Amino acid sequence: MSSTATDLTAILRQVRRLELRSERQVDALMLGAYRAMVRGQGMEFEELRDYHPGDDIRHIDWNVTARSAGQRAYVKVYREERARICRLILDVSGSMCFGSIPGQSLRNKLQTAAEAAAIIGVVALRNRDLLGLTTFSNRRLLHLPCRSGRGHIMHILRSCLAAQASADATCLTLALEELYRTQPRRTLCVVISDYLRDEIEFASTLRRVARRHEIIGLRIDDPGERQLPMARAPLVLRDPESRDEQVFVGGPAAADRYRLADQAQRQRVSDAFTAARCDLIDIGTEDDCFATLHRALTHRRRHA
Question: Do 288 and 218 belong together in one domain?
Fold first, then answer.
């Protein structure tokens, strides 16, 4: 058997495990932010009521009317049940390949992001919603339209779990600008990234796009990048996107400077989401994605 076929078999097995696991846990996610999205078209039965002159006779429930011995007629009342639209926007830039460090995490950032995306996909499948997928770095790499149906959503799940990190840099601003241009209807957009690269226009672009769409950010990080190793010798660090290298003097002072710079960068991203009135959920490569999403979306629902 070829390696490609083996990889596909493993991905399909992973999708099936996600589906089975979701049977017990996905309803909790559906009670959270995912249900708070805009609805589209469709009809769902709501109640029976007495027939009134002018009602459409096609909506008369003849079985219930017959049980009343012809004394009263009843009609079915339907409420509009619109199709929910969700788009997954998945960062596959070079920095997303970081992680899977023995003793710290079992998977890298892209694998964690793909699992989180696949969980949202399973929710959409169970909820019969429209789902689309965009993967990006500093350009769009894959764009699947928002559609419903098991075959389409299984394709999205496989695409998420099979995603490979590129050697390119991240450009979240470009991804949001394209979303604004190509997605005219109000949509729940789940933007999954490590949000490491500072972009001058990111905060203003996020605010503008959030006026049209509901945006939830999933920020993926790894414990290995939150602090420098406590080494006395100089450290050579390489940017996984630009490939630039910098030498840092080891020791506690360098570790403190790194930690403070990391905290400042994370705060800038958090402030951008707060200013845009969007939620930002942190997921570590060592975390249980189901449990983290459940806690965050439950908290969001309670404080909505």
Answer: yes
Domain count, the chain: 2
Q: Residue 301 in contact with residue 33, Cβ under 8 Å?
A: yes
Give 211 or 157, the one with higher predicted confidence: 211
- The token pair that represents 17 in the structure block: 């495990």
The pair of three-digit structure tokens given for residue 20, joined into one six-digit string: 């089975």
170 φ/ψ angles, rounded to the nearest 5 degrees: -95, 145
- Is 67 in the same domain as 156? no
Contacts of 174 (CB under 8 A, 6+ apart): 136, 138, 139
Predicted confidence (pLDDT) at residue 42 exceeds the cutoff of 70: no
Q: How far apart are the first and last CA of the chain?
A: 51
Regarding whether 131 and 62 lie in a shared domain, the answer is: no
Residue labelled with tokens 């990111």:
202
pTM of the model: 0.76
Q: Residues 216, 114: one domain?
A: yes
The single-letter DSSP state of residue 189 is E
Domain encompassing residue 113? 3-37+83-302
Residues 77-91, mean pLDDT to the nearest whole number: 76
pLDDT over 70 for what percent of the chain? 75
Residue-level pLDDT at 302: 61
What is the C-alpha to C-alpha distance for residues 233 and 221, in angstroms, rounded to an integer? 26
| Structure confidence by residue, pLDDT tens digits, 186-241 | 888 999 999 988 888 999 999 999 999 989 999 999 988 887 777 667 777 776 66
Q: Which long-range contacts (CB under 8 A, 24 or more apart) does 56-64 make?
A: none
240 and 224 part of one domain: yes
Tell me the CA distances in angstroms from 6 to 52, 63, 164, one per residue in order. Answer: 63, 55, 16
CATH code for position 286: 3.40.50.410
Specify which residues 48 forms β-bridges with: 76
- In 3D space, the residue among 209, 210, 259, 279 whose CA is nearest the CA of residue 34 turns out to be 279
Residues 159 and 247 in one domain: yes
- Cβ(122)–Cβ(154) under 8 Å? no
